[in-house]
Structures are given as C-alpha cells and as structure tokens.
C-alpha cells in the first residue's frame, strides 16, 4: 500500500471514528477506539518522505526534518492556505492543542503552507499572515505544493498526524475536529511514551513576531476603514486589527478614541474595559459604530455618546447555524467580516437593517435594528439575526432565490442606494456580485468563473463581465457621485473601479499606477468621501491608512497620532537626561544610541527599532514634529517662549538578538528640558543609552 492509499484509508477510518465520537460514549471508550486505531496504523509503518530541502521556514532558526528535529514527536501537519476562512478557524483548535500538549510533552505542530493564490506563494506575504494570525508554531512555505501532491491532499484545511518515526496515524479533513484532535494526540502521546519513543527535547524556535512594528504609536494590520459623519464634523474609524481595537480619529489622523486593545478578549463595557478579537468591518449610523468582531464571532455596538461597547449579536464562540432567526446574543455567528447598513423604505417608514458579510458561513446575514417589514411583507422583530443569502455551501452560484445562491467567503459589502442593491466582494471566487434588496436576487457583476464550482478562476485583467480577473478582493465601497464601485483587489495590490451597469472593471491605482508612489501591500478596506474627492485605503501589510486625493492625483500616508500614555512602572529600564534651551523658544533634536552590557546582544537590523514621544506637561506651549519614528531618525520638539521646565517622555521599543535568540525591550527615557536665558535656541544632542 502506497502513501496516498494509506491517506485514503485513514480518511475513511477517521470518518468512522468521528461517528463513534459523536455517540454518547464514555471518554474511556472513545480513547479505547482511538488507541486501537493508532496501534493498527503504527504497525503498517507507512512513513512519509521528509520535507524538500531549500524550502523557506518561519518561526524556527533552521529548517526542520521529520527524521531529525521531529524524531520522537507526535507531529500534526496543518496543510493550509492563509486566505481560507476554514483554515483560520482551525488555528484556534491548534492553539488549544499547543496549550494542552507542549513540545517538551512531545507534540509539534507544523504549518505546511500550500498556497491557493499566486500572491500567497510570496514568502513576504506569508510572513505577514503568520504575524497577523499570531501563528507561533513552525511554518514551511511549500511553494510547489510538493508535500500536498505527494500525499494526495485535495482540500484546505487538512491535518495529518504522524507518529514518532514519521508513520501516518490519522487524517482530519476540514474544520471542526477539535475534540477528535485532543483525544488522538493525548492517546498517541500516552501510548508511544509507554514504549519510550517520545522525546522531550526542544526544537529551534524563533518566532517571527519580533519583526513586527512595535510601540503604541503604530497601527498593526489595519483591515477596514470607515467614515463617520457627526454634528461635530467628519471622522475616520479604523479597525486596528492587529491591536484588537477600534480607533476613532479626525481627518488629520489625531486619535480621539481608543476602544479596546491591545490583547484579544471578549468584553463589554466602557472604552477602557471593552475588548475585541481581530475586529474587521464597520458601519456607522449617527454616533454609533457597528463592528464585525470577527474572531469573537459577534457584532458589537460602539456608542460614542455613552462611550460604551455592547454585544448585539453572537455569543463569543463560533457557531454552525446556517439559518439563524434568534434574537441578538442568543444567535451564534461564524466569522462576520464586514457590515453595511441598508435603509429600507416601507410605506412612510425607513428602517435600518445591518447586513453582515458572514465569511465563516459563506452567507450574508441581516440584523434588524428595528421592527421591520421586508421581503414578501414578512415581519422581523427588532434584534432578529438570520441568514438571507446563501445556502452555506462554498461556491459561486447565482440564483433568483437568495437562499439557493452559493457564496464563497464574502468579505466586503456596500450599499448602492440609488440602485437598491448590495454589492459584495466574494473573495474566494475572486468575483464581485450583487444582491437585489427588493427581490433578493443574486447576480454576477464581474470576475470569477461561469462554473459555480470553480473557485480557481483568478488573475489580474481589466475587462467586462467574466473577462475580468481579480485575486481575492476584500474591500468595497460605493461612490454616490460617480455611481461606480471601488474595490481593493487585495492580492493584486490594486484599487479598481467597476461600472455596475456595464460590468466593466478597470485598475486605477496601485503597483505604480498612475505613478510610482501608488504602492499597496494587500489593501483590505476602502472608504470614500465623495464630496471632497478623497479615498481612504486600509493598506494592511504596510500598517498604514493611505489617502488618495482624486482631484490632485496624489497619495499620502495618513499620519496617525495616537496619544501615548505610559507609566514609569511599565518599564524596567528608565533613564533620565537633562538639557537646556533658550527661554525665547527653540528646537530640540535628539538621537539615541543603544549599547548593551551583554556584548553578544546587538540591535537586529531587520527588525523595527522604534520610539514614541509623549509631551506630558503644558501641551499648548510645545509640539513634537512626529509622535513616533525609527530609532535612526531624531526626535524633534519645538518650544515656545517661556521659562519653565518641561518633561519629554520617550518610549524606545527595540529588538536585540544573539546568535540563536532575539528579545524585545522597552526603555523609558525621561528628558527634562529647562528653558533658561543664556541657552541656545537650537539644541542637537546624541545620547548613549546603556542597557543591562
């Protein structure tokens, strides 16, 4: 029996075991069944070939070998592609496994990245995904899918369990196998430990997280951006997804509200208490922001007047309900990705309906914010949340009947009010499609394949209808003055426009179009100020919000100024410096150089070395040119006339490495600036900081 035949047998046997696991059996009986299975297949000694040499690895200091580094370990190979929502769902299961069974206990999880889209084969893009999803186990970029083809794998995700000498023991296809994985791994470790075959050695881990931007002055993997109109004027709302928070700022980038963050959690309360987990899309209504709290599988409501966050749908855990119909927090959801508010007219009434791009279920759902009468005069009670489009089967199928249509991970949604349609980015089919808000009909606009089962028809081609080729679009917005759709063609790193009537699509920004400064890296969100001719882009992997002025034809990075509020107790390393500057006013320029008492430690040239500055007193008399920057750039503070002593507090976030490990350190610099009569108006200093 060859390897692929063994895989097929393991899949069949695994399905039988899964059926038995669903029965009302005792845990001991379930473990007995799994042990019998493991003993049977370990005797077959069907071992797999090792990883190909020369592949790029992440989270480890060197490439791993199944028969060297992983000998004596139970190994879970997770075949995934980072675009896939089902693969994302599996990560939480793997996280549970890693917490239950450590490397020293004998379990090692290895992500085998087997890309669907060409963009995903790029190791730089994969690194960003590993950081974005906070993957801490080893990952190998199998760009040719050599292991995938060798084993005969056919879908993402697929997990394969290996014994301590590389023997095939179990296969799990798709998501939803957490309990089975826990039992299989626990039984395998106990069994092989009884045979003295489990090794307790470490492996050479080196997490990729140390290469991330650090410090409070940054945003991290922003996913979506939205415009908020209030009586006080226009604001921007940014999903700072990597920091698990929502930022509300003015159009100059001055942050007014930080809601949630930095660590993931699921908690209602005021802005300081509330927590999110990987928030994505948002929609605004008056002074309220609705948030798709994706990894919490919930819809959250931010009230800017009350300064509170509450959950209005979802339970905090992923559900498998493809119908819905319950009220609010009684209704389970699955990875809501984007939101749009449809203002439904019925007679003299206008009622808001929150449409949800439910990526995890491959559907569109509705949350009724008021009692509503909608399709076929059906009445919906306030708070009702249910599926309105999609069967739940992942496909690219259009249909007159909305629940018979098939969607493929819808990840962006917008309302074209004048046309009475919702337009959505169907990311896994690489298509743009629409929902008629009066009849429920789902139709194709452009991109994707004519074959509803073909989710691999992608590319980067302008054109009309099916002649258009896209690559995993995520962001979408309606331009009410131009009556066209703007999309972020995410994996092509471009912004494109679509005429809904003619179904024509054209790239207008990105990859050097219209000139060299127009560069994006997996842009995921877009918002439009039609009156001012401004387009805001969540440029995800560049950790930035970009602003395009369509009238001037230029692009700029929005300087996001996040207030830095630090306490001396947060830093173990605190340094004090004093300087003087003229009482007539002046400018301080200061650079810091880092020296380590451990001579083996050196700053990592490939990692971000950052500073953030906080002006703690008399903010009206002095200003910082930038609130954050690279260690190689000076901190510049301008002082007005006065004779006071000012305290400039600077946080240095640095990454230093030895030969085999990297560490991050946070340093607090307290810089006391005294304004005196005989001092210079321009002070330039370079200060040495000695780090223990």
Number of strands: 45
Question: Could you describe the largest sheet, including whether it forms a barrel?
Answer: 6 strands, mixed
Give the overall silhouette.
globular
Gyration radius, rounded? 27 Å
Strand content: 35-45%
Portion of residues in helices?
Answer: 10-25%
Description:
Keywords: Repeat. There is one protein chain. The protein is mainly beta. The chain contains 6 helices and 45 strands. Strands 1-4-3-2-5-6 form a 6-stranded mixed sheet. Helix 1 (3-21) runs antiparallel to helix 2 (27-44), helix 2 (27-44) packs across helix 6 (178-194) and helix 3 runs parallel beside helix 6. The radius of gyration is 27 Å and the shape is globular. The model has no long low-confidence stretch (mean pLDDT 93).
List keywords for this structure.
single chain; mainly beta; 6 helices; 45 strands; 12% helix; NHL_repeat; 6-blade_b-propeller_TolB-like; NHL repeat-containing protein 2; NHL2_NHL_rpt_dom
């Amino acid at each position: 029996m060859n390897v692929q035949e063994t895989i097929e047998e393991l899949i069949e046997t695994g399905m039988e075991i899964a059926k038995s696991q669903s029965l009302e059996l005792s845990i001991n009986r379930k473990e007995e069944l799994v042990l019998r299975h493991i003993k049977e297949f370990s005797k077959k000694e069907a071992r797999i070939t090792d990883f190909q040499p020369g592949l790029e690895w992440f989270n480890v200091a060197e490439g791993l070998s199944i028969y060297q580094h992983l000998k004596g370990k139970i190994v879970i190979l997770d075949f995934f592609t980072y675009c896939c929502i089902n693969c994302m769902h599996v990560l939480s299961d793997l996280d549970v496994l890693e917490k239950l069974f450590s490397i020293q206990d004998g379990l090692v999880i290895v992500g085998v990245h087997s890309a669907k889209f060409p963009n995903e084969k790029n190791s730089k893009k994969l690194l960003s995904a590993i950081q974005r999803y906070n993957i801490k186990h080893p990952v190998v970029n199998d760009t040719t899918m050599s292991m995938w083809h060798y084993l005969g794998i056919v879908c993402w995700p697929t997990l394969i369990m290996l014994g301590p000498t590389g023997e095939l023991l179990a296969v799990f296809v798709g998501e939803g196998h957490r309990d089975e994985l826990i039992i299989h791994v626990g039984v395998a470790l106990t069994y092989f430990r009884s045979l003295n075959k489990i090794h307790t050695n470490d492996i050479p881990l080196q997490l990729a997280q140390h290469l991330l931007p650090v410090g409070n002055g940054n945003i991290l993997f922003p996913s979506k951006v939205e415009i908020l109109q209030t009586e006080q004027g226009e604001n921007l709302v940014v999903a700072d997804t990597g920091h698990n928070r929502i930022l509300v700022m003015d159009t100059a980038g001055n942050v007014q509200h930080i809601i949630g963050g930095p660590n993931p959690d699921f908690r209602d309360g005021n802005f300081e208490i509330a927590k999110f987990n990987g928030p994505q899309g948002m929609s605004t209504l008056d002074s309220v922001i609705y948030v798709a709290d994706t990894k919490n599988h919930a819809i959250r409501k931010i009230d800017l007047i009350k300064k509170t966050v509450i959950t209005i749908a979802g339970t905090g855990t992923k559900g498998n309900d493809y119908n819905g119909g319950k009220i609010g927090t009684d209704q389970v959801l699955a990875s809501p990705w984007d939101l749009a508010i449809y203002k439904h007219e019925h007679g003299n009434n206008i009622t808001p309906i929150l449409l949800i791009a439910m990526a995890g279920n491959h559907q569109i759902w509705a949350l009724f914010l008021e009692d509503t009468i909608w399709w076929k005069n059906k009445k919906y009670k306030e708070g009702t949340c249910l599926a309105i489009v999609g069967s739940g089967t992942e496909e690219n199928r259009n249909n007159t009947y909305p629940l018979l249509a098939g969607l493929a991970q819808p990840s962006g949604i917008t309302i074209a009010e004048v046309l009475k349609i919702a337009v959505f980015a169907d990311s896994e089919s690489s298509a743009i499609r629409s929902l008629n808000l009066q009849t429920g009909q789902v139709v194709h606009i452009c991109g994707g394949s004519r074959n509803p089962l073909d989710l691999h028809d992608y590319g980067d081609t302008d054109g009309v209808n099916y002649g258009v080729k896209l690559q995993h679009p995520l962001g979408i917005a309606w331009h009410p003055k131009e009556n066209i759709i703007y999309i972020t063609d995410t994996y092509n790193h471009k912004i494109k426009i679509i005429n809904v009537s003619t179904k024509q699509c054209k790239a207008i920004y990105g990859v050097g179009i219209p000139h060299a400064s127009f560069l994006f890296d997996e842009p995921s969100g877009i918002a439009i100020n039609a009156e001012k001719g401004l387009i805001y882009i969540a440029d995800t992997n560049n950790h930035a919000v970009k602003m395009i002025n369509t009238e001037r034809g230029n692009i700029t990075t929005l300087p996001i100024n996040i207030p830095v509020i630090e306490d001396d107790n947060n830093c173990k390393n605190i340094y004090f410096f004093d300087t003087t500057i003229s009482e007539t006013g002046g400018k301080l320029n200061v650079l810091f150089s880092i020296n380590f008492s451990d001579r083996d430690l050196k700053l990592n040239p490939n990692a971000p070395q950052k500073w953030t500055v906080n002006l703690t007193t008399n903010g009206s008399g002095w200003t910082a040119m930038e609130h954050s920057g690279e260690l190689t750039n000076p901190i510049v503070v301008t002082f007005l006339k006065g004779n006071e002593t000012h305290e400039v507090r600077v946080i240095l976030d640095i990454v230093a490495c030895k030969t085999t490990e990297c560490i991050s350190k946070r340093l607090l610099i307290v810089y006391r600036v005294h304004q005196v009569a005989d001092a210079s108006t321009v002070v330039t200093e370079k200060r040495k900081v000695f780090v223990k």
